[in-house]
Amino acid sequence: MTAPSTPSAPGGGRAPSRRALLTAAVATPAAGLAGALAADRPDPDPPADGKAPGAGPAPADGPTVTESPDPPGDRAPFRPVLPSDGLVTNEYAFRRPDADDARHSRDWIVTSGSLLARWTFGWTGVPDGEPPGPGSALHTGSSVFRLVTRRRDFGDTAVRCWVYLRPPGATDRTPARDWDGGHLWLRYHSAQELYALSFRRRDGKVVLKRKHPAPGRPADEDGVYTTLATAGHALGHDRWHQVCGTVSGPRDGRVRITLSLNGRTVLDAEDEDPGRLVTAGGVGLRGDNTEMAFFGFTARNHTGGRPRAEPPAEGTPR
Questions:
Q1: What pTM was computed for the model?
Q2: How far is CA 254 from CA 218, 269, 293, in A?
Q3: DSSP conformation letters of 125-178
Q4: How many whole angstroms separate alpha carbon 142 and alpha carbon 124?
Q5: Which of 298, 293, 297 is nearest to 122 (CA)?
Q6: Which residue has the higher pLDDT, 3 or 301?
């Protein structure tokens, strides 16, 4: 597996539009997703508040640090800013937090794989099964991609973002599995305790699951999944899709979780045995054997009703 390359953006004069940047990517010899982003939705619509999603400065030499434009707090929306290009943070920084060459983010923790930026989009890089080094230059490790916020105060929350996934592959470390694809995390307490919303799996299903520690087993062992809802809904690969997940409650001891894709609610379930997931946690993204990009990641307070449907943008399946 060759190392992911970094295509150069058009330079000189006025900053180019996102459409120009992504169109230029097609003509740039870049690995995987970076050369394909312009194929479907090259010019994202601005969000309702008028802020460009993910606009931010190019990373400087040394540790990459990104900041959220909103101050931390229980009611502050989470709208993380990514640099225009380069490594944001990775598994190396998580496992060696005190290393001089570790790159940390103020918004994100990557417990496995690599988070890179490409024209202010988040990107897994080209997935492989080898652990990344300090700069993810030779390997990304993103065949197992785990991204979670540093903030853990997301209670009743709606998370929205646009995602772009390539068809899943496999590595020697990670053979093909039905669940390969993209997943959203809500109320993340730990790697063993969270809600997982699978929005695109290899088998074409969408699934809501609760993950909780195995009874009677050490807390650091892998958790146990309980399926709360499932349906058949296969999003197209190599296209942009809007993903929205919500969690609210408890109400009468139950936690409600919904998953909407391109403005349509595809799963709506209540967890009657949420355990400690009645309390706030982090939010994030997971990828398995899948190259993925995302932008416009936002987490806001959610009242518990159905998520507000946003009209699909140009080029989005209806």
A1: 0.78
A2: 26, 10, 33
A3: -S--SSPP-TT-SS---TTEEEEEES---BSSEEEEEEEEEPPP---SSS---T
A4: 6
A5: 293
A6: 301
